[in-house]
UniProtKB/TrEMBL annotation:
Cofactor note: Binds 1 zinc ion.
unnamed ZnF: 3-34
Region (Disordered): 1-21
ATP-cone domain: residues covered: 49-139
Required cofactor(s): Zn(2+)
Protein name: Transcriptional repressor NrdR
Compositionally skewed regions (Basic and acidic residues) per UniProt: 9-21
InterPro entries the UniProt entry points to: ATP-cone_dom (IPR005144), NrdR-like_N (IPR055173), RNR_NrdR-like (IPR003796)
Annotated GO MF terms: ATP binding; DNA binding; zinc ion binding
Family membership noted in the UniProt record: Belongs to the NrdR family.
Domain of life: Bacteria
Keyword Transcription regulation found: yes
C-alpha cells in the first residue's frame, strides 16, 4: 500500500477491525520509511452474476426477484419467510460457486424447483406450472403424476 505522505510502498498493519456495517475492514497502517500513520479500507470485490433469459437478453441476477417468485408460489402455504430466504441463499451460493458469471434463467428455474420441491409440494407445482408453461391440464396432470410417483418411492 502506497504511503499518502512519502509515496513509499512499504507499510505495516498496526490494527484491523471490521466497519460498523461489517462490509469492509478498516486497517491502520504505518509507513516503514516516514513512520506516518494512515487508514485504508478493504472490501470484497464481487463479480455480478448475469442471467441469460430465454430471449437471449441479459440482466444482472436479482435476489429479490427470485424471492418474490418463490413468495408467490408459496402464497397461503405454511412456509416461513426465513425458509424461503435460506432457499434463495442456497440457490445464490450454488450459482456463485459455479465459476460461471453468466447463468441461464433455465438453470435458476431448475434450482428453484428443486428447493421448492423439498419445502412444499403445492408451491413446487404452482411454480412449475408457470415456469414450465403448462399448455393444458394434461401437462399439469403429468407433473402431478411424477410428483406422486416420487412420493411413493
Amino acid at each position: 500500500m502506497k504511503c499518502p505522505y512519502c509515496g513509499d510502498e512499504e507499510s505495516k498493519v498496526i490494527d484491523s477491525r471490521p466497519t460498523e456495517d461489517g462490509e469492509r475492514i478498516r486497517r491502520r497502517r504505518e509507513c516503514l520509511r516516514c513512520h506516518m500513520r494512515f487508514t485504508t479500507y478493504e472490501v470484497v470485490e464481487t463479480v455480478p452474476l448475469i442471467v441469460i433469459k430465454k430471449d437471449n437478453s441479459r440482466e444482472p441476477f436479482d435476489r429479490q426477484k427470485l424471492l418474490n417468485a418463490m413468495l408467490r408460489a408459496c402464497a397461503k402455504r405454511p412456509v416461513s419467510f426465513e425458509t424461503l430466504e435460506r432457499a434463495v441463499s442456497s440457490i445464490e451460493q450454488t450459482l456463485m460457486s459455479s465459476y460461471d458469471r453468466e447463468v441461464t434463467s433455465v438453470r435458476i428455474g431448475e434450482l428453484t424447483m428443486q428447493e421448492l420441491k423439498q419445502i412444499d409440494e403445492v408451491a413446487y407445482v404452482r411454480f412449475a406450472s408457470v415456469y414450465q408453461q403448462f399448455a393444458d391440464v394434461e401437462s399439469f396432470f403429468n407433473e402431478l403424476k411424477k410428483l406422486m410417483g416420487n412420493r411413493s418411492k
